[in-house]
Amino acid sequence: MTRLRLFALNALLTLLCVATLYPVLWVVKLALSPTQTLSLSANPLPEAVTLDHFRAVLGSSDAQGRWLFGRQLLSSLVVSGATTLVGMSLAVTAAYALSRFRFPGKDSGLQLLLVTQMFPATLMLVPLYSLLQTLGLLDSLGGLVLVYATSSLPFCVWMLKGYFDTLPRELEEAALMDGASRWQVFVKIVLPLARPALAVTALFSFMQAWNEFILAATLLNDAARFTLPVALQRYVGEYKTEWGHFAAGALLISAPVMALFFALQRYLIGGLTAGAVKG
Amino acid sequence: MSDVRLVGLKKRFGDNAIVKGVDLEVQAGEFLVMVGPSGCGKTTLLRIIAGLETADEGEVYLGGQRVNELPPRERDVGMVFQSYALYPHMTVRENLAFGLTLRKLPRADIDARVAEAARMLELDALLDRKPKALSGGQRQRVAMGRVIVRRPRLFLFDEPLSNLDTALRVQMRGELSRLHRQLGVTMLYVTHDQVEAMTLATRVAVFNQGLLQQLGPPMELYLRPTNTFVAQFLGSPSMNLLTARRDGAHFRGAGFTLDAVGEASGEVKLGLRPQDLRVADEGPLRGEVLAVERLGFDGYAFLQTAAGPLAARFEGSSVEVGQTVAVRPLGDVLHVFSADGARALRHP
Question: Which residues of chain A are within 8 Å of residue B48 when distances are taken between CB atoms?
Answer without folding.
Answer: none
